[in-house]
Design goal:
Helix content: 10-25%
Structural class: alpha/beta
Oligomer: single chain
Largest sheet: 3 strands, parallel
CATH architecture of one domain: Ribosomal Protein L15, Chain: K, domain 2
Strand content: 5-15%
Distance between the termini: 54 Å
Number of helices: 4
CATH topology of one domain: Ribosomal Protein L15, Chain: K, domain 2
Order of helices and strands: HEHEHEEEHE
Radius of gyration: 27 Å
Strand order of the largest sheet: 1-3-5
Length: 148
């Protein structure tokens, strides 16, 4: 069986490893933990970056630069074509309505409307951000885009 041949029926569920069930199982006696040492003891776990007491790699290398990851703004992204499919002509579209029709999971993350696809319906859309293309398409169809 090859990886591309796995279907829902075949290979979808892997059986759990039952350790300590006799020598014939292949996981008897030491249960795959080896002999002696911290790794063989119950309750043993170590950090992913632990290197046996040696100074960890991330502490050995110099730290330079700046990462914007802590300050980036994350949006729930919706395309114009999704609005075309889900809303009637003249509808008001906001975060609550988007949750109701199932386009976003909740109203916690701000919504950004992108301009992929075409729109023919006149929609009044309120969102945290819009792309230039989305604003052009909404206004061309007779609707409006309000940042709020």
């Amino acid at each position: 069986m090859m990886i591309h041949e796995i279907t829902k029926e075949a290979g979808a569920h892997k059986r759990r490893k039952r350790v300590g069930r006799g020598i014939g199982s292949g996981h008897g006696k030491t249960c795959g933990r080896g002999h002696k040492g911290a790794g063989s003891r119950s309750g043993h776990s170590h950090r992913a970056n632990f290197e046996g007491g040696q100074m960890q790699f991330f502490r050995r290398i110099p730290k330079r630069g700046f990462s914007n990851a802590n300050f980036r703004k994350v949006f729930a992204v919706i395309n114009i074509k999704a609005l075309e499919n889900r809303f009637d002509d003249g509808a008001e579209v906001n975060a609550d309505m988007l949750v109701k029709v199932g386009l976003i999971p909740d109203t916690k993350t701000p919504v950004k409307i992108l301009g992929e696809g075409d729109i023919s319906k006149k929609l009044v859309v309120t969102a945290a951000a819009f792309s230039k293309g989305a604003i052009e398409k909404l206004e061309k169809a007779g609707g409006s885009a309000t940042v709020g």
